[in-house]
Write a structure and sequence with these properties.
By secondary structure, this protein is α+β, with helices and mostly antiparallel strands. Helices cover 20% and strands 34% of the residues. Strands 2, 3, 4, 5, 6, 7, 8, 9, 10, 12, 15, 16 and 18 form a 13-stranded mixed beta sheet that branches. A two-stranded antiparallel sheet has the order 1-19. A hairpin with a 3-residue loop joins strand 15 and strand 16.
Length: 386
């Protein structure tokens, strides 16, 4: 059974004009930073803490224009991923890293051989240039046909990376430590202003030094531009019992930090939605969010999504706030940092109450685009042994 562990947070930011929110002068930068915690008691019994830096602007995350365009022009190419995740697919050895080129299956390909040959032909046309750009020397290993869609169904994600419609061409190379690999790629890819801006980037550097840390860089083409994502994650087994009792959650504990600061890259404007903290809890039994220490942002349901009424205020948005899956997003509003006490909450205690407030429709467009993309953004790519 395939064992892939990636979480690719896709936030589709396609040049949103501040004309939508002129009255509040709120902007949305193409660069975004997100911190995520997934507590998975349902499938893998692990927790994953991750930092993702992502952009659709080639001046912020820099790859050659020619390579980006070439990837985007082939409609069957779904992603190019560089990772040092152990056993990125079945058969890859622990001392090997991977470059994965994901190809959408052609319905006209009949039989395994035709599918594999078609996939490799496309992937081989990219690997030489990818190796040159990222200073790697990955060699073809195998093609892998994804058949397990369990996690995509659980998290309602698209399956671009590990869904049943995807065929992966796998190229392997010698394993590199995460701190070395992250240092090399971040200095190569991230603009100087982002690196010097600190924020989540600094947390990612610290995470990369953890012995359990892994990293990935992904190029995910869309119709008009590509989403570029640099991600660090640390996975650990869940040792404490979380079912049937009131459980206290301290999200920043998963990062071993007391405060989470935003990047100074956003200091030149008002970008309340460009730094997001997100937590997802998957369990086998229904529970509910309770005892939230920080603010709860009043929301209004629009098209089945809880939309914050005022995004200049910092606080939590939980949607859903009860069930077998809990998901919370914390937005910074006009603040530049959050401490651990503001993020603490519990599961299984008293219910939350919301105050009804009239929604300013002038900011609805920006909020929906951002919250939808972040909420659906956990490309939680994982294969499991049965």
């Amino acid at each position: 059974m395939l064992k892939i562990i990636f979480i690719i947070s896709i936030i589709m930011v396609i040049g949103i004009s501040t004309n939508y929110v002129h009255s509040q002068e709120i902007g949305l930068s193409t660069f975004q930073e997100s911190a995520q915690v997934i507590i998975d008691k349902k499938i893998s019994n692990t927790s994953i803490a991750s930092i993702t830096l992502h952009s659709s602007n080639l001046q912020e995350i820099k790859i050659p224009t020619e390579l980006e365009q070439k990837i985007r022009e082939n409609e069957r190419v779904q992603a190019v991923v560089i990772t040092n995740q152990n056993n990125c697919v079945l058969g890859v050895r622990d001392y090997e890293s991977c470059i994965i080129i994901n190809i959408e299956r052609n319905p006209e390909d009949k039989g395994i051989n035709a599918i594999q040959d078609s996939t490799r032909k496309i992937a081989d046309s990219y690997i030489h240039e990818v190796n040159q750009v990222f200073d790697t020397d990955a060699k073809f290993f195998q093609t892998y046909i994804h058949t397990n869609d369990e996690t995509n169904q659980e998290l309602d994600t698209s399956g671009i990376i590990s869904g049943h419609r995807t065929i992966s061409a796998i190229y392997t190379m010698p394993m590199q430590d995460t701190d070395y690999m992250y240092g090399k790629l971040s200095s190569m890819l991230l603009s100087k202003s982002i690196r010097e801006g600190g924020g989540f980037y600094n947390i990612a550097k610290t995470l990369s030094e953890d012995q359990n840390s892994k990293m990935s860089f992904s190029i995910i083409p869309t119709e008009s531009k590509s989403l570029l994502q640099l991600r660090i994650s640390v996975e650990n087994p869940i040792e404490s019992e979380m079912e049937g009792t009131i459980t206290k959650i301290n999200p920043l504990e998963f990062f071993n930090i007391k405060n989470l600061n935003r990047s100074d890259y956003f200091s030149t404007g008002n970008y309340p939605l460009n730094s997001i903290f997100q937590i997802v809890i998957l369990g086998n039994y229904e529970t509910n969010v309770s005892d939230v220490r920080g603010n709860i942002i009043p929301t209004q349901m629009i098209d089945g999504i809880e939309i914050p009424i005022e995004i200049t205020k910092k606080g939590w948005i939980f949607d859903p706030q009860k069930g077998e899956q809990i998901q919370g997003k914390y937005i910074f509003g006009e603040s530049t940092s959050v401490n651990e006490n503001e993020l603490k909450f519990s599961l299984g205690g008293g219910n939350l109450e919301y105050k009804e407030i009239e929604l300013d429709e002038s900011i609805t467009v920006v909020i929906i685009i951002t919250i939808v993309s972040i909420g659906a953004a956990i490309f939680y790519l994982k294969g499991y042994k049965k």
